[in-house]
Write a structure and sequence with these properties.
metal-binding, zinc, 2 domains, single chain, zinc-finger, binds zinc ion
């Protein structure tokens, strides 16, 4: 069990949920990568998966996981809520149709998921990490629900309430990087300015980050448990 990022699907627990949901759905929903380098395979995989979910399978999953939410065991309930959202996130990845009622349910449900602290033991790692929560929030807001897949891995504007990806930018404009840390992206000066009061608390130059890493780990191999 482990975690390599704080994003959605960035840990073993998330992948376990993804394969559990895939089994329920009768189709592989995550391990199949949407790889732009293989456009033929991608088109086939995407369309087949979307059609399968849209044929009533996703509706059944929603009913099943929404009902399981009411279980008396809180630890089960918490996990199932994540599963439930996992199903939605997996459906968004292929552009499946999520009904207005289901979207409304998701908007309420995701706020009830625990947000794990920065570091948590693997067996307690069943909630959201803060970045994953933000990812899901953004997805709920930006999901087009018109058959186009939602890319959870896309680089997005970090400003709260924005989340634009390069794909959403007007012709000829690109996302900009924070000039100091070169990590965070913004779609506009306005978004950067709005984020700065928060971002400045963790914004460091690459040199400073590297020096801190060295101090922390020496020059030995890097270990990660984020
Ligand atoms: Zn920065
Ligand atoms: Zn923005």
């Amino acid at each position: 069990m482990g975690r390599w990022s704080e994003d959605l699907f960035g840990g073993d627990t998330d992948l376990d949920e993804a394969s559990y949901i895939s089994e329920d759905a009768g189709i592989e929903l995550y391990m199949y990568e949407i790889d732009p380098e293989y456009p033929d395979e991608r088109a086939k995989g995407l369309e087949a998966t979307r059609a399968h979910l849209n044929s009533g399978v996703l509706d059944k999953l929603f009913v099943k996981y929404a009902a399981a939410k009411a279980t008396a065991y809180s630890f089960v309930s918490k996990e199932l809520r994540l599963v439930f959202l996992g199903a939605a996130a997996l459906a968004m990845r292929v552009g499946a149709t999520i009904s207005p009622d289901q979207m409304a349910l998701l908007r309420v449900t995701y706020t009830k998921i625990d947000v794990a602290p920065k570091y948590s033991l693997p067996f307690g790692d069943t909630g959201f990490r803060a970045p994953a929560k933000k990812q899901f929030e953004t997805a709920l807001r930006l999901y087009k629900n018109d058959g186009s897949p939602y890319n959870f891995n896309a680089v997005r504007c970090e400003a709260d309430g924005c989340g634009k990806s390069q794909h959403d930018m007007p012709e000829g404009q690109t996302l900009m990087k924070c000039g100091k840390c070169k990590l965070e992206h913004y779609c506009s000066r306005e978004c950067q300015a709005a984020s700065w009061p928060d971002h400045k608390k963790c914004c460091k130059t690459p040199e400073k980050r590297e020096a801190e890493e060295k101090r922390r780990w020496g020059n030995g191999p890097m270990m990660m448990n984020v």
